[in-house]
Amino acid sequence: RPTLAFDNVVFGYEPERTILHGLSFEVPAGASYAIVGPSGAGKSTIARLLYRFYDPQAGRILIDGQDIAVVTQESLRAAIGIVPQDSVLFNDTIGYNIGYGRDGATREEIEQAARSAAIGGFIASLPQGFDTEVGERGLKLSGGEKQRVAIARTLVKNPPILLLDEATSALDSRTEQDILATLRRISRGRTSLSIAHRLSTIADADRILVLENGRLAEQGHHTELLRRD
Ligand code: ADP
Ligand code: ADP
């Protein structure tokens, strides 16, 4: 289980406008950290830098002490599994949609990932089971079920690091609680960073980093932050 660190990261999309002002933090191996903050604070920018859609103008992003700028795109994607807010599911079978997470995944691995995402039983209860279609022409999945397929797609890669990018923001509050429980379970044994705009969705993170205007305004455990509110 690797550590994940931002070391004095400076970044702006445009030369005259800095978005992250020397951001530093470290997620210890196996810990679950969360980043919250108002809209425009720079949360999505952190996710984009982690995935190397952009590179910082200064500073480094480190996985186990190694600068992600020098690792291959392939090993970076193997290291970091993303659960986004809205995953694009193909109009194909659930199995195909999960297997898409990793080339050459076997049916056994896909079923294992489905079980870990708590959608295995659901699949078994369907008439055609695993080969049931997801898209418009086939089965209609609920928002929560779609999110479980997305989680399984990430899990089939067995990534040591998880980036949960507003992973429950599109769900109603009951479904959100269900998915959060699954996310908590799959985060165990991995290093995870959860990005959210609501403090309530990340209540049991080991540490919460509050981002404001591209700087860490404060950090602490959920109960500490609530006391200061
Ligand atoms: P958050 O995810 O916390 O809402 P973002 O990281 O999306 O914040 O945005 C941080 C700042 O960067 C905002 O001021 C936003 O307008 C700006 N920004 C985001 N994406 C781009 C882009 N592609 N080009 C220029 N500015 C951007
Ligand atoms: P891969 O299949 O490349 O191993 P993923 O399945 O996590 O990785 O994501 C597939 C592609 O979708 C990524 O290469 C990336 O371009 C895009 N993507 C995934 N999650 C996000 C996200 N949270 N924000 C922006 N783009 C994303």
From TrEMBL:
Residue stretches making up the ABC transporter domain: 4-229
Compartments (UniProt record): Cell membrane
Protein name: ATP-binding cassette domain-containing protein
Organism: Qipengyuania algicida
Higher taxonomy: Bacteria, Pseudomonadati, Pseudomonadota, Alphaproteobacteria, Sphingomonadales
Region of the whole protein represented: 355 to 583 of 605
